[in-house]
Amino acid sequence: SGDDGIMDIPGAKDKIDPTTFEQILEMDDDEEERDFSKSIVYDFFTQAESTFEKMDANLESKDLKTLSELGHFLKGSSATLGLTKVQASCEKIQHYGHKKDESGTKDITEEEGLSKLKTTIEQAKQEFREVEKVLKTFYHDES
């Protein structure tokens, strides 16, 4: 509908798929309060924070299998909201944890996997923080 203005917020354009996000907004009873979509979005914030903490811990212990699972998990929940950049980075995390290249086709060594995981997890965190800012602006949460 476009009157919601999420895509007018600076930084939203390349980070959020409007169609996917609009579908969640359509479930809101009240366009002022937006209780439903807001609760889904804020649950995702909590989920992402705790997933990144787990990723850091598993990077320390070099547990590639768990890192792949965590990437897969966060890929799913970011896809649900249409958070395209976070989703793409999480897909790479999933592949690297399986010791595959970013497309998931070629084999890479465990060492390469860990090195790529380290940088991609940092990238995913950064992308998450940027889209979190956009979403908080949308929900008038300037804290």
TrEMBL record:
<dbReference type="GO" id="GO:0000160">
    <property type="term" value="P:phosphorelay signal transduction system"/>
</dbReference>
<dbReference type="Pfam" id="PF01627">
    <property type="entry name" value="Hpt"/>
</dbReference>
<keyword id="KW-0597">Phosphoprotein</keyword>
<dbReference type="GO" id="GO:0005634">
    <property type="term" value="C:nucleus"/>
</dbReference>
<dbReference type="GO" id="GO:0043424">
    <property type="term" value="F:protein histidine kinase binding"/>
</dbReference>
<dbReference type="InterPro" id="IPR008207">
    <property type="entry name" value="Sig_transdc_His_kin_Hpt_dom"/>
</dbReference>
<feature type="domain" description="HPt">
    <location>
        <begin position="33"/>
        <end position="131"/>
    </location>
</feature>
<dbReference type="InterPro" id="IPR036641">
    <property type="entry name" value="HPT_dom_sf"/>
</dbReference>
<feature type="modified residue" description="Phosphohistidine">
    <location>
        <position position="72"/>
    </location>
</feature>
<dbReference type="InterPro" id="IPR045871">
    <property type="entry name" value="AHP1-5/YPD1"/>
</dbReference>
<protein>
    <submittedName>
        <fullName>Hpt domain-containing protein</fullName>
    </submittedName>
</protein>
<dbReference type="GO" id="GO:0005737">
    <property type="term" value="C:cytoplasm"/>
</dbReference>
<dbReference type="GO" id="GO:0009927">
    <property type="term" value="F:histidine phosphotransfer kinase activity"/>
</dbReference>
